[in-house]
Amino acid sequence: MSIHSSLGGTRGDRENLAKVAAIFAPALREDSIDGEEWDRLAADFDGICQEQLNVFSEARWPGVVIDPLIFRRGSRVVGGCVSMYRSLPFGLGGLAIAKWGPLLADAGSATAARDYAGMVEALVERYAVEKGMMLSILPRAVPGEVNPGLEHLKARGFRTGVRLTHPNRYFVRIEASEEVQRASFAQKWRYHLNKAEKEALTFERYPASALPVFQKLYDAMLDRKHFPDFSAVHTLPALMGTPVEAARPELFLVSHDGSPVAGAVIFTAGDTAVYLYGATDDRALPLNAGFFMHHRIIGWLRQNTRAKWYDLGGTDGFEGLHRFKSGMAGKTGAISTVPPSMNYANRLWPWLLGTTVHRLRDTSAKIRQATLRKRAGG
Are 372 and 228 within 8 A, CB to CB? Predict the structure, then answer.
């Protein structure tokens, strides 16, 4: 029974199960490990995602302590977490953040719910109790109405923090066959795909060394659309250059008449593939190249990975992206939401200061995004 099924039933049932799991989960052994070794181990976890890679965290969040932890039950690795923290001066605690963690190594394990609970307890002990910090866990979005991680954190006493302005997340279910996959798309989406397949488009997987080709396409897209970029695209050289091959994203390009018109960088480790970045030129729209590219990516994932889902990310409020991604999710996919941050502190001062820091960072980011949107619109 997986963590998803074991926390099923009514909300009250889920909360009771979460409490029981937290109380009776045997203690896990916790080990700090080197960042590259973490990436090597975690690349095989069911729950791995780019936000939980050490190589990504170091490039994305300079100036904070990156803290990779592995958790074992006996000799078995059950999961782990990359947390980031910064201490406040004068012994006033600090803020520790675990974004999209902790991760389960085997989400289908019979002990998955207990393992998750045990990892949360270990994080509470390490950051809230020992270091006197506020611990902020940002559960990963999952397809479906119930987010087991969020339910457990609520039951454990974590309190709701900041939320994304546009929290919707779009998931394509990787179907068993091409025929079923195509039938799952919305009718209008299939129509555009059929048109694209009549064009002379080619789809290819490229090595990491071709990243400059994608970057050129990406930069030209931003210039053309005056598109405000809120992404972490600057982390791509580090991600694509990691020596841990299993943790390295894949690069795909769609070409027309021998030159790239669209490209995508996809994180493919774990049971959920993630669309990290995409780029198109001005020929892509009339060619329906985006439909062609994503359809071929889904087929590649089906044949070459163990992914059950393809996470398309969000829309930042753009209606055109909503139509495109919801049509691709189609009949068998899911539109879910990114949970809010869930916060816990053992004492008052870390709570007050950690909450203030968190909200100031969130407000600053939203002001920056609004300013960039206004400039782009002008």
Answer: yes
